[in-house]
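Thread: "does anyone have the structure for this chain?"

Original post by V.I.:
We have the sequence but no experimental structure in hand. Need at least a predicted one for the grant figures.
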Amino acid sequence: MYARDNVAPAADLQQPPSGAQVDVAVTALRMLADPTRLRLLWHLRDGEQDVTTLTTAVAASRPAVSQHLAKLLLAGLVSARRDGRRVLYRVRGGHVRRLVTEALHAADHHLTGAPEHD
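Reply from O.Q.:
Generated one for you, tokens below.
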């Protein structure tokens, strides 16, 4: 198998997104629009963490963190697995990790006046 076999044809990338794609993207972006959820995703981008660790990291109450994680789970932005009595959460894939990273880099450029780049 060649690397190009895993790449969508150029014509597919130029087609307008389907309604379902737009709906899922809007849901993901809506989830990122909350400061606590964005901070949670940032902390989860490098690996699994439990609610107690995340509560400390984002300086929010345990019930609030649990509710935000439930929303992120329903939106498909995080996954969870049970480890004994703990539930460990992680970002669901490279696309979500890159989306969080790019949003924060864009914010940094805006705040610092750094020149834009591609």
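V.I.: this helps a lot. Residues 94-112 form the longest helix (19 residues).
O.Q.: and The helical segments are 10-13, 19-32, 35-44, 51-58, 62-74, 94-112.
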